[in-house]
From TrEMBL:
Record-linked Pfam families: Alpha-amylase
InterPro entries referenced in this protein's UniProt entry, alphabetically: GH, GH13_cat_dom, O16G_dom_2
UniProt-recorded name of the protein: Alpha-glucosidase
PANTHER family from the UniProt entry: ALPHA-AMYLASE FAMILY MEMBER, NEUTRAL AND BASIC AMINO ACID TRANSPORT PROTEIN RBAT
Organism, scientific name: Streptomyces canarius
CDD domains: AmyAc_OligoGlu_TS
């Protein structure tokens, strides 16, 4: 079993890491209650080490009412009892590190749960109280304060619900997401101090990094003006005040040798790059590549734009095909529209899974060959498709807030299959898991794929092991036919055929790996990728 590259104590490990996203609730169930937990993750650490990943990113594992999948945090210094204990999290961090795997935790600084002690105290204290200054409480408009304070839209795509909720005492409070997620007032020094303390709390427990949720939303125009009349600068997206916050965070991370990855959705490349200046965040998620359709021209443009965005600030790019919010790659690439957009999600969209699987395998080699770090969402290495969840089992608030139009995100959050012959495909539950598994889930089980030299799991293991062949240098595009992506890095080449017919491979000394077999004449079939030694 090979050790991940950062086992060599490289302080710049994060610049080229393969980081595995763990959605704890659906990874593995250690106590049999139907919900994944830290005990389940600890038991599967050898699997993750065998996969060869450098780090684990955990979506929120804190105490939460789970009104938004854990992104409604009630206590940042405690693990939700459904997942385990703080002591168990500390053991997990240490045990993973012994295997050469670092840990990244999730911080949700824009908002907290309505069950957080601060918000409960604010509600109890009443209008005008100091406790309410930690949030955005305002009187309403209209003759009797019956109208919301402004016209801001919900950040849940497709939702027309208001972002203000009125309390019985007449005050309204702001929540860009659900009413159970009140927004914090980042102009208040106590809010800044609390989050700096939280960062230190987790760095001191051995985490290597922090992923920052909704990183561009924290700061608000203090006047809370209507968006319709004050569109620029935006009253709550990408405000300049954010950069002072992240500079103070960076100083803390540097004390501990920690790293940050920000969730930053911005269309402006120059504004995006500001978050990656040397004294701010280390990396940010690349949503352009994630949402890009399976089209050679569009993918190349996304890659070029991404690398150009990062070059001026010397930050590495990140590449990701799927996450806990996004339709799984196999399903998306098997559809007529292979792009991803929250606004276009719908029930019953036809999918060719065989086609999607071929493309997802090729995309895996493409992403792992690019310069920078790669995020791998749990189950992608198994080639899992998006599951269709019966309406009466859906739990995602996006489904309910869209009045049932949006199928929500539960389809990519179904518990993983570990053993084909065990109940619930070896997830570990005595009873039905928190989300139902499709009938064909055992066919994707880890134990089956480990014995199959052609499985998605085998492909990912081989690709991650061979990834150092591409070195740490820049990407150079090679001449290629229309519909074909071809580039070199160091002494390795990556070729991806998105054209309609097979293509000849460029001159090379050896085939390192391919996402599918070459044809009888040694050409690369459509929807197939190959890694070559120059």
């Amino acid at each position: 079993m090979g050790q991940p590259s950062h086992a060599r104590k490289d302080p710049d490990w994060w610049r080229s890491a393969v980081i595995y996203q763990v959605y704890v609730r659906s990874f593995a169930d250690g106590d049999g209650d139907g919900t994944g937990d830290l005990a389940g993750v600890r038991a599967r650490l050898p699997y993750l080490a065998g996969l060869g990943v450098d780090a684990l990113w955990f979506t929120p594992w804190y105490v939460s009412p789970l009104k938004d999948g854990g992104y409604d945090v009630a206590d940042y210094r405690a693990i939700d009892p459904a997942f385990g204990t703080l002591a168990e999290a500390e053991k997990l961090i240490a045990e993973a590190r012994e295997l050469g795997i670092r840990t990244i935790v999730d911080i949700v600084p824009n908002h907290v749960s309505d069950q957080h002690p601060w918000f409960r105290a604010a509600v109890a204290a009443g209008p005008g109280s100091p406790e309410r200054e930690l949030f955005h409480f305002r009187p309403g408009r209209g003759a009797h304060g019956e109208l919301p304070p402004n016209d801001w839209p919900s950040q849940f795509v497709g939702s027309t619900d208001p972002v203000w909720t009125r309390l019985p005492d007449g005050d309204w409070y702001l929540h860009l997401f659900t009413p159970e997620q009140p927004d914090l007032n980042w102009a208040h020094p106590a809010v800044r101090q609390e989050h700096e303390d939280i960062l230190r709390f987790w760095f001191e427990r051995g985490v290597a990094g922090v992923r920052i949720d909704s990183a561009a939303l924290l700061a608000k125009d203090p006047g809370l003006p209507d968006l319709a009349t004050h569109p620029e600068p935006h009253p709550f997206v990408d405000r300049d005040e954010l950069h002072d916050i992240y500079r103070s965070w960076r100083r803390i991370a540097d004390e501990y040798g920690g790293v940050f990855v920000g969730e930053v959705w911005l269309p402006d490349p120059e504004r995006f790059a500001r978050y990656l200046r040397p004294d701010e965040l280390h990396t940010a998620f690349n949503f352009s590549f994630l949402s890009c359709p399976w089209d050679a021209g569009r993918l190349r443009a996304s890659i070029d734009t991404t690398l150009a965005e990062h070059a001026p600030v010397g930050a590495p790019a990140t590449w990701v095909l799927c996450n806990h919010d996004v339709t799984r790659t196999v399903t998306r690439y098997g559809r007529e529209d292979t792009a991803f957009d929250f606004a276009t999600k719908a029930f019953g969209t036809p999918t060719d899974l065989a086609l999607g699987t071929r493309r997802a395998r090729a995309a895996a080699l493409l992403s792992l060959a690019l310069p920078g770090s790669v995020y791998l969402y749990q189950g992608e290495e198994l080639g899992l498709p998006e599951a269709e969840i019966p309406a009466d089992r859906i739990q995602d608030p996006m489904y309910f807030r869209s009045r049932g139009a949006d199928p929500g995100r539960d389809g990519c959050r179904v518990p993983l299959p570990w053993a084909a012959g065990l109940p619930h495909a070896g997830f570990g539950s005595r009873d039905e898991p928190w989300l139902p598994q499709p009938a064909d889930w055992p066919s994707y089980a880890v134990d089956r794929q480990q014995r199959d030299p052609h499985s998605p799991l085998t492909l990912y293991r081989e690709a991650i092991a061979l990834r150092p062949e591409f070195g740490d240098g820049p990407l150079t595009w090679l001449p290629a036919p229309d519909g074909v992506l071809a580039f070199s890095r160091a002494d390795a080449l990556c070729v991806v055929n998105l054209a309609a017919t097979p293509v000849d491979l460029p001159a090379h000394s050896r085939l390192l790996l391919s996402s599918g077999p070459l044809d009888d004449t040694g050409r690369l079939p459509r929807d197939t990728a190959a890694w070559l030694r120059a």
